[in-house]
Amino acid sequence: MTLATTYLVLSAFGLALSALTHFRVRVHSALLIPTFVAGWLRGELALQTIGIEVFVTLLFVAGGVLEFGAGRLALVLSFVSWGLLVLSHRRALQAGAELSKTLESVGLRPERSVSPLHGFPYPFSFTHPQVHTIRDIEYGPSLPGDKGGRNRLDLVLPRTARAGDRRPVLLQVHGGGWMIGDKREQGKPLMVHLASRGWVCVAINYRLSPQATMPDHIVDVKRSIAWIRRHIAEYGGDPDFVCITGGSAGGHLCALAALTANDPRFQPGFEDVDTRLDACVPFYGVFDLLDRARDRSLGDMTRAIGPRVFKGMPEDDPELWDAVSPLMRIQADAPPFFVIQGSHDSLVFAEEAVTFVAALREKSREIVLHTELAGAQHAFEVFHSPRSAHAVRAVTAFLEKVRADYEASHGLA
User: Fold this and answer.
1) Which of 22, 89, 378, 384 is catalytic?
2) What is the mean pLDDT of residues 169-182?
């Protein structure tokens, strides 16, 4: 293969990935995971991707590829690919306007001072001079199904936090299809930002399938809430004010926790602990494991998670599948919700959030906000990017409103 042909192949491949990033592709289930990977990385790291590919192109040009038709065609394809990435980046910058429109409905104006270059060149740097992390605190004993260290949590908190401060608390639940994932991998931009503003954040592990069987996962989330009630005051947190967030499977678990306060089925041995939560922010969550609204047009989740997560299919224990589907647990006393989803999510389709929000708004007496971010993929907010930063600031505005309302209602303001 000549150098020009090699460049042509790489350029065509890059264009295909850029197309998967810019356009919402739902043509076959086999493309869903490749679409996620391409759209997630290239969509949130569009400028970095362009920079790398421009550098590689210059190397090819220096090697003389433009002397050949294949090389010149490859350069055209590269320019088209970069054009799609520029459009994707511009669309990501509109996340601030999309989120502001949602929050303005309840009188909020989130901070909009996000640079178009936010996260460039360090998208995976999560340090902050006013924030520190305490790792691997056990929130309960290791239970059957724990393959090691799943009963631990990390604290992300202000360096100035002291026992008795009664700072607001956020609980972060990681995703990973109930089978993979770790507390160190997700939610960092939000937790660090909130901690810099005085919050105490708690990131947990929980038992994973196939070693664990549903409802072990939600039991562990509840166990961590029980730990917060008992111990968070020692680290400066307010045990009486706890909000929750998470993405994907973590979005499912945080919504389920928020909608099943004090359910004894999920609190074995600690039924007397108050597990009510003050607000819930699920990112791209799974809200109905049985997909009653037929929102998943290209796949049946039950075939993937039934044998591994439940050790059975819905017909084997329909009551359990209903009990752990947030859509089926909606009630009037649900806490305030802010549901965030991406229009291009290829792992959890945006329609699922629409169905859940509509049902929640019918019953809940509290605020129910929903934003569908144009062009956003699954896991868009796990590292720094302009869209991630806008989401973090919007969630901060929402949670701080909930906190202010709580303080006012309890005479603490």
Assistant:
1) 378
2) 97
Examine the pLDDT at 333 and tell me if it is beyond 90: yes
Instruction: Please say if 345 is a catalytic residue.
Output: yes
Among 25, 101, 14, smallest CA distance to 344 is for 25
Distance CA 84, CA 312 (A): 44
As a whole number, mean pLDDT of residues 225-235 equals: 98
Instruction: Write down the catalytic residue from 81, 209, 248, 364.
Output: 248
The CATH superfamily label for domain 96-409 reads Alpha/Beta hydrolase fold, catalytic domain (3.40.50.1820)
Q: In what order do the strands lie in the sheet with 279-283?
A: 131-138, 152-158, 200-204, 167-173, 237-247, 279-283, 337-342, 368-373
Rg (CA), the chain: 22
CB atoms within 10 A of CB 141: 8
Q: What is the pTM of this model?
A: 0.96
248 is catalytic: yes
Please state the domain extents for the chain. Answer: 3-93, 96-409
pLDDT at 119 over 70: yes
Mean pLDDT of the chain: 95
pLDDT of residue 413: 64
Q: What pLDDT does residue 25 have?
A: 87
Among 345, 384, 385, 388, the one annotated catalytic: 345
Q: What residues pair up with 202 in beta bridges, in sequence order? A: 155, 171
Residue 125 annotated in active site: no
